[in-house]
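Progress note, project year one: complex with phosphoric acid mono(formamide)ester.
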Amino acid sequence: MTDDIQINDGGTLRHLLTLENLSGELVSEILDRAQNFLSIGDRKTKKLPLLRGRSVFNLFFENSTRTRTTFEIAAKRLSADVVNLNIATSSQSKGESLLDMIDNLVAMQADMFVVRHAQSDAANMIARHVPKGIHIINAGAGSHSHPTQGLLDAFTIRHFKKDFTGLKIVIIGDILHSRVARSQIHVLKALGVHEIRVVGPETLVPESLSEMGVSVYNDVDSAIKGADVVTTLRLQNERMEVSLVPSVQQFHKDYGLTKERLALAHPEAIVLHPGPINRGVEIASEVADGPQAVILRQVTFGIAVRMAVMSLLQD
Ligand code: CP
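Model obtained:
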């Protein structure tokens, strides 16, 4: 759908809007570049000059801790100038349209926009609107996609498991509202993972999911059995008009990742979570803080992955 605007004629990345249809080669190029950037974080001087003199605007219309902050750190490590627009105090409240706001920021000579928005097509709309030479990164679009999260999930899995072929990966929880689940599935498919299982309450697993080439399970314990990677997702209550589970206690009992459930996975399974975690709901504290959890490593890897994406965008 967005191939035409996110990929240049020569196959390079112009914008990052979705992982849907992104080739395994391009994904691997991003992950390899992120690998090269990883050690920058261990240096005393955590800087590279790749985006020196460029202006990166963070536009977060939805709340964020990890994505907004790691994009800012990534841009600064690449020596860019970063502007974090406070949407709550911006002139959006005076009736300015999204595209009029973008035109004004373009007039301030922005080079890159990092956009999180509840509307699935907001980043695409901006990408179609801006002049050539300005790059858009989708930092989370509604329930639709969160491409840099998918990439950092893939980076984390590759870091710990080395090879994607033969992996059994399970995603548990509120799949219906999860842009993370969709982006993770797209990237894992591109990297050749065959066995992706999803499980959650019937109300939170869309029937259309099997069209993405994943196996939909009804029973959580069967889904976890033998898995190499377990991703657990929070209930995204902010996207529900009415509660779609009987209670959080019941959700935890039926789908929460407890130590006992995790014991059904491969003994060396890793546990991923995009954050924010809700302890005692989708994940038990002893799992979140346990030896198999790589949740905080995901956050650190996210800096290198976002540096890779920002430095790869070109006309
Ligand atoms: N994973 C993620 O998108 O977290 P934030 O909402 O804190 O950015």
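The two ends are 19 Å apart (CA to CA).
Residues 64-67, 140, 149, 274-276 surround phosphoric acid mono(formamide)ester (CB under 6 Å).
No further modelling is planned for this target in the current period.
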